[in-house]
Amino acid sequence: MDDLDRRAAGLRALAPSCGPVRLVAVDGHAGSGKSTFTGRLAEALGGNVPVLHLDDLASHEELFGWTERALSQVIGPLTAGRDAEYHPYDWNLRRFLPPRGLTAAPVVLVEGVGAGRRALRPYLAALLWMDRGAQESWARGRARDGAALSAFWDGWTAAETRHFSADPSRPFADALIRECPEGYKWLPKPSETARSHHSITHGEGSPPAY
Q1: Cα–Cα distances in Å, from 187 out to 2, 158, 163?
Q2: Which residues contact 47 (CB under 8 A, 6 or more apart)?
Q3: pTM of this prediction?
Q4: Is 23 exposed, middle or buried (0-12, 13-18, 19+ CB in 10 A)?
Q5: Are 147 and 200 in contact, with CB atoms under 8 Å apart?
Q6: For residue 97, what are the CA distances in angstroms to 56, 70, 76, 165, 183?
Q7: What single-letter DSSP state applies at residue 102?
């Protein structure tokens, strides 16, 4: 059985990674359960933890081309100790909306496909990967969104496959999160690569205590 309160305490105890902020990423395939888990984790962290959903930075034209927006609108201000402002994308209106604030809180969660991408990893205190396979995740997402979005999912799965082939996140995860009937299991790092990454970015030789 998972213990999100204990895990949350471990995340809060990590060293700041993005200015004064501990930026914690939740990555995984579309439909893997990232949003639900992130909501649970935010509650365990106190309920007032800012959450950045990467769906707000992506767009129809740039499913994965949002790196510069993330760096300039979010990472830059947080690194400087300032609250961030980003322009969320409206997927129905197909345009970016007026800016929305993101507080430079002690812990900030960022969730979405590609949250652990290469360009963001240096700013992360922890990278969590939802441990559900691509095909199962995509089937869940298609069932959730219905037949009307079938064509979108066809394009998305091709784009996601290209993204993770060129810029994988899972090998660098600090923990794998597996959904189970009792809640969530936190599994060890998937490889030594993650330990090396954590040592480089945080100057430590041991895994974080979460």
Answers
A1: 11, 28, 24
A2: none
A3: 0.89
A4: buried
A5: no
A6: 10, 15, 20, 31, 35
A7: E
Q: Which range is least confidently modeled, 1-10, 46-55, 96-105, 195-204?
A: 195-204
DSSP 87-101: --EETTTTEEPSPEE
Q: Assign 183 to helix, strand or coil.
A: strand
Model confidence pLDDT, tens digit, residues 113-142: 999 999 999 999 999 999 999 999 999 999
SS3 content of the chain, % helix, strand, coil (to 5): 40, 20, 40
Structure confidence by residue, pLDDT tens digits, 36-85: 999 999 999 998 899 999 999 999 999 999 999 999 999 999 999 999 99
Q: Residue 85, CB half-sphere, CA atoms under 13 Å: how many?
A: 4
Q: Which residues contact 66 (CB under 8 A, 6 or more apart)?
A: 54, 57, 58, 59
Of 19, 23, 21, 26, the closest CA to residue 41 belongs to 26
